[in-house]
Amino acid sequence: MELMEALRTRRAVRSYTDEQIDNDLIRELIEAATLAPSAMNLQPWAFVVVNGSARLQGLSDEAKRYTIDNLPKGSPLAGHFADKEFKIFHDAPALIMICAKNEERQSDEDCCLAGQNLMLAAHAQGLGTCWIGLSRPWLNATSVKKELGIPPALRPVAPIIVGRVQKLLSATPRDEPLIIWGR
Ligand SMILES: Cc1cc2nc3c(=O)[nH]c(=O)nc-3n(C[C@H](O)[C@H](O)[C@H](O)COP(=O)(O)O)c2cc1C
User: Fold this and answer.
1) What is the DSSP letter of 155?
2) Which parts of 10-84 fold into alpha helices (H)?
3) Which residue from 46, 128, 147, 170 has the fewest beta carbons nearer than 10 Å?
């Protein structure tokens, strides 16, 4: 797929088929992620994969409960969580968590770049993805890291669900960019 076409047609996907994703395909996406640039080429990322709808469904419920319990008063997200049908991981079959391996100042940026690579590579393979920032506080809770087998030294930065697209939403609009031609 041509790059500009990929950039224009990628969408956040929130509706997936039941089809499970092969681990080899996930490895390919991770390889694409590791092609991202990183500060001082430190490559401070590690990838934690939860693959399988049944497991992810259970985690989705758990993450929802945790998030409701820890939602700040008056949060605009309260409406989403009041909806019984709302699933944090949108019934996707796989979750790839890009985690920072160190506390270097720019590790988060590096992991985010890896995340964008992963989402574009998935799109080129005909897969859908969605970055699930909502799950990040839950994923960083000590008990959850233990439950998922995430080593304590890793810090989940970019949780991205992956799967075959069931329903594609129309493109979200983009604002005119604010451009300042500096002196
Ligand atoms: C850092 C980040 C966090 C996000 N968190 C969530 C999330 O928790 N749940 C969700 O459904 N979408 C989430 N998204 C997806 C955005 O809502 C989506 O990218 C945005 O609306 C633009 O739509 P598009 O990706 O289809 O262009 C997140 C995206 C980013 C980059």
Assistant:
1) E
2) 23-33, 53-69, 78-82
3) 170
Residue of 71, 130, 161 to mutate, ligand 1, most atoms within 8 A of C-beta: 130
Looking at CATH, the fold of the domain delimited by 3-164 is given as NADH Oxidase (3.40.109)
* CB of 134 shorter than 6 A to ligand 1: yes
| pTM score over 0.90 | yes
Q: Confirm or reject: Cβ of 133 under 6 Å from ligand 1.
A: yes
What is the tens place of the pLDDT at every residue in 17-41? 999 999 999 999 999 999 999 999 9
Task: Determine the atom of ligand 1 nearest the C-alpha atom of 115.
Answer: 31
pLDDT per residue as tens digits for the range 34-86? 999 999 999 999 999 999 999 999 999 999 999 999 998 899 888 888 899 99
- The domain ranges of the chain are 3-164
Residue having the nearest C-alpha atom to atom 16 of ligand 1:
12
Report CA-CA distances (Å) from 68 to 46, 62, 79, 105, 182. Answer: 28, 10, 11, 30, 44
Name residue 26's amino acid.
I
